[in-house]
Design brief:
With 283 residues, the protein is an alpha/beta fold. The protein has eleven helices and ten strands. It has helices at 13-26, 44-54, 66-72, 84-98, 104-107, 143-150, 214-223, 226-229, 233-243, 248-260, 266-274, and strands at residues 2-6, 30-33, 60-62, 112-117, 121-126, 156-159, 166-170, 173-177, 191-199, 202-210. The strands form two sheets. Strands 3-2-1-9-10 form a five-stranded mixed β-sheet. Strands 4-5-6-8-7 form a five-stranded mixed β-sheet, covered by helices on one side. Helix 3 crosses helix 4 (84-98), helix 4 (84-98) crosses helix 10 and helix 10 packs antiparallel against helix 11.
Length: 283
């Protein structure tokens, strides 16, 4: 049994192309996509269309992540169309517009995939943890917390969300975080995915990292109109791509309350943040 796992593509089409090409030459029995296909990147529509087409094959299985949910939430008729709160969610609203205000394709995606077999046991995939889809599992997560996050322990537990890949054994469970296809946050700009295999001695996994056309991925921010249409936050996402470190969460933690209180605009906060971004690992 061979399983390939992709996660957190975030509209990075050149990275997705490189990974899918590598995966298909490996010929896995299943390809699992652990969510966050869209948002936080310039070519969400292209990435989703490719994967929905592949999902027509029985061996490709896709779930949605928190960024799909963010775009779905823009359907709310009470969603602000201007003002500080809109400024905080402008990139998500831009992606919602790119989907012509129709999120039925991502709303239909499940939140969990299970593959059960008498021979191989249970393989379970969620975007983050069994608690919710923003509850990330990190390399440094304690055993006590991990026990709560994976719930009733399967033979293989697959996750993503954190953009930091790892393989870890917890009791009899192989825990695999596939990292990120489109926005790695481990200081390694390369794209990547997870290979999981079952042999006589049980389940094993490894993380595969691949070089890809990151220069085209950067140009896509300009050529697609994303850098302008998604608002000032798009500058921070581009910086994340360049540094392979999370930036947007740290910006939000520093400035979101000030923006909501009207003490500064989103554009002002981003220019301030770009003067002092995250340039070293924060774990």
């Amino acid at each position: 049994m061979k399983i390939a796992v992709l996660s957190d593509i975030h509209g990075n089409f050149p990275a997705l192309e490189a990974v899918t090409d590598h995966v298909e030459r490996w010929h896995p029995d299943f390809v699992l996509v652990a969510g966050d296909i869209v948002n936080r990147g310039p070519r969400s529509h292209d990435c989703l269309n490719v994967l929905l087409e592949k999902q027509k094959q029985d061996d490709w299985k896709i779930i949605r992540g928190n960024h799909e949910d963010y775009v779905i939430s823009r359907e709310n008729p009470n969603d602000p169309k201007e003002g500080p709160k809109f400024d905080l969610f402008q990139p998500t609203y831009y992606i919602y517009q790119q989907f012509n205000y129709d999120v039925s394709s991502i709303s239909a995606l499940p939140e969990e995939i299970r593959i059960n077999s008498a021979e191989y046991g249970c393989v379970r995939m969620v975007h983050a943890s069994m608690r919710h889809n923003r509850d990330g599992i990190y390399p440094e997560t304690t055993d006590a917390k991990l026990k709560k996050q994976i719930g009733l322990a399967p033979d293989v537990f697959i996750t993503g969300h954190t953009h930091r890949p790892f393989v870890r054994t917890f009791g009899k469970t192989l825990v695999v975080n596939a990292g990120s296809v489109g926005l790695p946050f481990d200081e390694d700009q390369r794209t990547g995915y997870a290979k999981i295999t079952y042999r006589r001695k049980g389940w094993k996994a490894k993380i595969v990292r691949l070089s890809y056309n990151i220069d085209q991925a950067k140009r896509d921010f300009y050529e697609t109109g994303y850098l302008e249409g998604a608002g000032p936050q798009a500058k921070i996402v581009l910086l994340e791509l360049e540094l392979a470190l999370s930036q947007l969460w740290h910006w939000s933690k520093r400035y979101s309350n000030l923006i909501l209180q009207g003490k500064m605009t989103a554009a002002e906060s981003i220019e301030a943040f770009l003067q002092d971004p995250i340039t070293e690992p924060y774990w």
